Amino acid sequence: MAIVEVRELKRVFKGKKGESVALERVDLDVKEGEIFGLLGPNGAGKTTLIRILTTLLLPTSGKAAVCGFDVAKEAQKVRRVIGVASGSERPGYDFITARGNLWFFSQLYGISTKEANERIRELSTLLQFKEQLDKKLYMLSTGFRQRVTIARGFVNDPKIVFMDEPTSGLDVITARTIRQFLFDQAKERGRTIFIATHNMVEGETICDRVAIIDKGRVLACDTPAALKKQVGRQVVVMEVGPPQPFTFLNDLRGVSGVSSTIDNEKELATVRILVDDDAVEAQVHRELESKGMKVYASWRQEPTLEEVFIKFVGRGFAESEVVAT
Amino acid sequence: MYARTWVRVRSIYGEPLWLVVGIAFPLFTTFGLGFLYRSSGVGALAGFAVLGGIAVSFWSNVVWSMATQFYWDKQEGIFELYLVSPAPVSAILVGMSIGGFVGTAPSALLVGVVGWQVFGSAVTPSWALVATGFVLTIVALYSLGMLLASVYLAYGRQAESLNDSVMQTVSMFSGAYFPSVGSGSPFPVSLQLVVSLIPLTIGMDVLRKAVFSPLTSAFPTVYEDLAILAVLCVVFFVLAQWAIGRMRERGRKKGTLVVRQG
Q: Is A88 touching B (CB cutoff 8 A)?
């Protein structure tokens, strides 16, 4: 059964410089109890979609429903069954303890203090911040603040939790703790988790299904494994220096997509190239050398979600972010 | 509502500097004006300054904590958490008001007690009128604060400068430290009518009449003042509910509820 249904959803923002289309005819179904990932670069429309589904924004056209309730017409009913947590927001008020903040937000849902205290105890144990509960928020590290934010999203015992970049900017251990918590909530409690992220690891490790979104359009939606199968090509990774724009490689026959990350300190670029066959790799070598670059290392990899993204979008996340800025 | 009251009170007492500022500033102004009245030979009027000090404590809280609170919450990303919850925004505003009043009352009381010890005249106030006038003034003030909270959300970044201008202008024209309406007012009648829309103005007039009746004019009478205050309570409260609902729907349409500025 679909807990989230999105049909022909469109959202247009009107500004002084004209209109900008944030979402264009988006169709999605999210099943109950699954972890659903919305994968896309900055500005792809992920946050706009989450804001519509959490009743903060109205769609320009189309329909969206959460737990069967229309987000535009039955907003109050939607608000009773959802939880929200974002990686960029504050967990609450700085001069109040983590426990106090969690209790306060539980009261917005009309939960009894006894029940709230029980949930706070359970969530702080699962997310491993029990010792920090009676510290004021401004005294907590970024990692613990984020754990409190995540706990806040679950304190009202929601059927579905919407999360925007939940592990953004966190250390590996905290990010892993949070991912494990989300995984357990879905698999053991049957809660639906809707994650908007540009973190490939999140998409690959915990999501049951992933939708790839770019420029307001959903380009593909399936399990990570099925999406990777769709790539059907090989990935060549090269370490190249000195770094230069690599977009010219897209013009080579047999190259389906290129993404790169640049290490300015080492003056080295790691280039990921989606190639159709072995012959293309040699041609790429020649092209790079003809532009004055040297290939220091080269190896093959299984396709990742990044390659899936490259296949559907034609560029990697890094390039998208450069374009966005 | 109770939860938001709790947050407001904890926030006020969570930062000692805010507490000191909340007590010291009105107290300094009270003492300054009280000594001025006394040295000018109208020591009996020094009691006006004490009432003004109490009123300004609450007015500061309404302007700096009520009106701007949602704006700050929006900047911090907390406002959207209210909006995605089923709690009515009006209940959150009422909670903020009660918390603001409870948090400010001790400092206002301190200003009153200390000021009265130093400048208190031998007066026999009508306590029933004082209490009625005080309650109506507080309700009208905080209702105005709820209305301003919606206005500030719409105005965004200009909120701080708007706050500065509102704070000083209202302190001046509401006559916190001198009679600004009635026969003792230095303002023309047209201006008196305009400033009568500020609950603080009428509230101060009621308190002055109830405490120092021989020193103030007969028109408007204290009962007319109370009636105006009651009307302002209802008007501001209803307007605040309407404005917050409209702000929410407008924000959902235009996408301005969660766009952080600055």
A: yes
